[in-house]
Structures are given as structure tokens and as C-alpha cells.
Specification:
The protein is α/β, with parallel strands linked by helices. It has one domain (2-249): TPP-binding domain (Rossmann fold, 3-Layer(aba) Sandwich), CATH 3.40.50. It has helices at residues 3-14, 41-44, 47-50, 53-58, 60-77, 82-92, 107-111, 168-180, 199-205, 219-223, 233-249; strands at residues 18-22, 98-101, 116-118, 121-128, 134-136, 155-159, 183-187, 209-214, 227-230. The strands form two sheets. The chain has a six-stranded parallel sheet, sandwiched between helices. Strands 5-4-6 form a three-stranded antiparallel sheet, covered by helices on one side. The longest helix has 18 residues, at 60-77. The radius of gyration is 19 Å and the shape is elongated. The mean pLDDT is 97. It binds 2'-O-acetyl adenosine-5-diphosphoribose. The site of 2'-O-acetyl adenosine-5-diphosphoribose (OAD) has 28 residues, from helix 11. Keywords: Metal-binding, NAD, Transferase, Zinc. It comes from Desulfosarcina ovata subsp. ovata. InterPro entries: DHS-like_NAD/FAD-binding_dom, NAD-dep_sirtuin_deacylases, Sirtuin, Sirtuin_cat_small_dom_sf, Ssirtuin_cat_dom.
Length: 250
């Protein structure tokens, strides 16, 4: 066992409030590509052309055809992987209280985490751009693109596009929880998109220990991660759960 891994186990065992901040990397092993880096979505598509609110308002048909339909196909097939299950296990063991996720795939809830802050919203719902009526994505009739609401308005995923504000409650609660935790587990995020990327800094500024799980170093690794654990989340998190079980039973 590496020293950093052993330190992470000891730190989690002592912690009273642990929060996880997750990003696209935790869902890579569920078959959902990340945004940046090798195989990333933004390598194939220019986000300013297809994922910015101005692009959607100008040409919703193209954004639906190029981005949203593709996302739906990928997310429909995805199931929680061993990393999501690991975080749900940590909650059941009384170690983890809240997950703040930048992901819109709903996989943390499906794995069993009960307190999940969806920082960028949720793809499980579509919302009318005109009247705010919502409907489950699975019930939307896609025979007409863009799909429309009963009022005639255009439906859009209930997650944020670039250029939009973070849902107020999600932002406020994430800031409060980050400031009050004593451990933050940062899993599978490049930590490049604000304001989500500021949560580990808020945690660290308030005395928390930052444990980072990622196969690649990120902008956090050298600057603020106390315990960087290099590797895939689907491998490291189950190992962490196993070690925590041994620790709890010792
Ligand atoms: P990124 O695509 O920027 O970063 C994914 C991170 O996951 C990288 O640091 C990878 O090294 C890491 N990674 C890859 N495979 C992994 C694995 N098996 N286990 C653990 N980590 C792995 O994704 P985010 O940081 O989530 O926003 O991106 C943040 C936001 O940018 C997204 O929420 C999205 C995007 O634009 C919006 O759509 C508003």
C-alpha cells in the first residue's frame, strides 16, 4: 500500500464531514466520454458552437441533432460503474455525506448516493425554454427536432449550457458544504471549469484535506491536493472502500 493511500485511509477514518466533488472522469468507465483530453467530446465538437446558450437559441435544431441526441444515446446506455458504487458504499458506511457532481448523468443517484448536488443540472429532465414546464427526457417525443412543449416553446435539457448561471441553490449549498467539510474527495475532474473548480480551494482554505483521484495530474495536483492518488476511479475507489472496511472492523 502506498503511503499516500494509507494516509487517505487514516484521514477518511478520522473525518466527521466528507464531501466528494466529481467530474466526467468518474463516468468514463460507464462508457461516457470526458470533455477534455484523449477522446474528449470537446476534441470532436467546438463547445462554443454546440454547447453555448447563444448557439442553442440561434439554432436549436442543430444543437439537438449534433449534441443533445448524441448525449441521449450515450446516457441511455450508461450504468453506474465501480467508482459510483464505491462512493455509494462510502455513504452507507457513514463516511461520505454529500456528492457535488458536475455530471448530468444521474449515475450517483442510481448507484445509491442520497445527497447529490447536481451542479450543472440534470439530463434526466427537459425544460421548456419559454414556459419552464418540465418533462422526463425518456418521455420526450423526438419525431420532431427540436422537440416542443405543449405551449409551442422549444424543449432543452435541464442542465446548463456554457454562458448560463449555475442553479442558485446548488451553488450556495456547494459553497457552504465545501467550507464546512474536513475532507474533500476530488474524483475525475480536470478542475478547469468555474465555479465548480473553486470548491476544492474553498475546502482547503477552511482546513479540509483534499484527496484527489485521477489517472492524470491536474491543475489541483501540485497546488492544493494533499493526497493525490494516481489511477482510474473505478480501481481506486473500490480499493479505498475495502481498506476502510478493514479499518472499521479492526
Ligand atoms: P473533463 O473532461 O474536463 O476532465 C475529466 C477528468 O477525468 C480528467 O482530469 C481526466 O484525467 C479524468 N479521468 C479520465 N478517466 C478517468 C477515470 N477512469 N477515473 C478518474 N478520472 C478519470 O471533465 P470535467 O472536469 O467534469 O460543463 O469538466 C467540467 C465541465 O466541463 C463539465 O461539467 C462540462 C464541461 O464543459 C458543462 O457542460 C457546463
Amino acid at each position: 500500500m502506498s503511503d499516500l493511500f494509507a494516509d487517505a485511509v487514516e484521514t477518511l477514518a478520522k473525518a466527521k464531514k466528507t464531501v466528494a466533488l466529481t467530474g466526467a472522469g468518474i463516468s468514463v468507465e460507464s462508457g461516457i466520454p470526458p470533455f477534455r483530453g484523449k477522446g474528449g467530446l470537446w476534441e470532436k465538437l467546438d463547445p462554443m458552437k454546440y454547447a453555448h446558450i447563444d448557439a442553442f437559441l440561434e439554432d436549436p435544431e442543430t444543437v439537438w441533432n449534433v449534441l443533445i441526441k448524441e448525449m441521449k444515446m450515450v446516457l441511455d446506455k450508461a450504468r453506474p460503474n465501480t467508482a459510483h458504487i464505491g462512493l455509494a458504499d462510502l455513504e452507507r458506511m457513514g463516511i461520505l455525506q454529500t456528492v457535488i457532481t458536475q455530471n448530468v448523468d444521474g449515475l450517483h443517484q442510481r448507484a445509491g448516493n442520497s445527497d447529490v448536488i447536481e451542479f450543472h443540472g440534470s439530463f434526466a429532465w427537459q425544460r421548456c425554454q419559454t414556459c419552464d414546464w418540465t418533462i422526463e427526457t425518456s418521455r420526450v417525443d423526438l419525431s420532431e427536432i427540436p422537440p416542443r412543449c405543449r405551449c409551442g416553446g422549444i424543449l432543452r435539457p435541464d442542465c446548463i449550457f456554457f454562458g448560463e448561471m449555475i442553479p442558485h441553490d446548488a451553488l450556495l449549498r456547494s459553497q457552504q458544504i465545501s467550507a464546512a467539510c474536513d475532507v474533500m474527495l476530488v474524483v475525475g475532474t480536470s478542475a478547469t471549469v468555474q465555479p465548480a473548480a473553486s470548491m476544492p480551494f474553498i475546502a482547503r482554505d477552511n482546513g479540509a484535506v483534499v484527496i484527489e483521484i485521477n489517472p492524470e495530474p491536474t491543475s489541483l495536483t501540485r497546488r492544493i491536493s494533499n493526497l493525490p492518488l494516481l489511477g482510474a476511479a473505478g480501481t481506486i475507489l473500490p480499493r479505498l472502500v475495502k481498506a476502510m472496511r478493514r479499518h472499521q472492523n479492526a
